[in-house]
User: Which sequence fits this backbone?
């Protein structure tokens, strides 16, 4: 990975992470990497914890995620292919455990756009579309993002094996559209925030309506559903 990519990944993580972290009350974010050989035996993994602790993937705040990210870069060997499906399935399994409307999950994926398992990823998205889960994909670098646009499903609903996704749950954001030409500064945090969050409210509501979950009474003693974010 080039210094430009490292800078872009970290910039995207910090910028987008700081936008959506306020929707999680405890600021504990499970963080995973995909596409690397792990120590000590060089085993290839497409869903490993950035903390290095399989029992505790949580990082404290976005700063904690960044720290774990840079530490992971020093300990793993980045290695293709780039598979999305394992991480999507891992987070979907968490979302499947809590479907009563009390929690909603948001998976933030940052990638260079080179996706290797499109068939499996489409199937993972279709399977996850019935769960309390939204996926934000942030593309960094100069790659063509045609595959990401296909996953977004704004024009044509994602399908797999003849099944259509129950809901549109993927939002794609090309990070390069929001940074200056030198690639070291976000031009408009307000516009980035607007576009990152554009589809989340409707996606959350579509899940609640599909399950017949009514809004809770506006009482101080009744907390709102909590967004759980995975990176």
Assistant:
């Amino acid at each position: 990975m080039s210094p430009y990519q490292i800078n872009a990944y970290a910039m995207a993580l910090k910028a987008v992470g700081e936008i959506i972290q306020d929707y999680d009350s405890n600021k504990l974010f499970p963080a995973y990497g995909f596409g690397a050989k792990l120590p000590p035996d060089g085993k290839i993994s497409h869903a490993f914890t950035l903390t290095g602790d399989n029992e505790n993937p949580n990082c404290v705040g976005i700063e904690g995620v960044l720290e774990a990210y840079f530490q992971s870069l020093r300990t793993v060997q980045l290695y293709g292919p780039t598979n999305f499906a394992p991480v999507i399935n891992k987070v979907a399994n968490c979302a499947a455990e809590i479907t009563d409307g009390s929690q909603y999950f948001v998976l933030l994926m940052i990638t260079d756009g080179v996706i290797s398992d499109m068939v499996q990823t489409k199937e993972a998205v279709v399977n996850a579309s019935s769960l309390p889960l939204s996926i934000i994909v942030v593309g960094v670098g100069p790659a063509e993002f045609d595959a990401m646009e296909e996953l977004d499903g704004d024009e044509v609903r994602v399908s797999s094996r003849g099944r259509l996704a129950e809901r549109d749950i993927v939002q794609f954001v090309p990070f390069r559209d929001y940074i200056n030409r030198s690639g070291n500064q976000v031009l408009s945090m307000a516009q980035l925030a607007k576009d990152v969050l554009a589809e989340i409210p409707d996606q959350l509501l579509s899940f609640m309506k599909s399950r017949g979950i009514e809004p809770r009474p506006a009482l101080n003693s009744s907390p709102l559903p909590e967004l759980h974010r995975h990176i």
Remarks:
- The two ends are 19 Å apart (CA to CA).
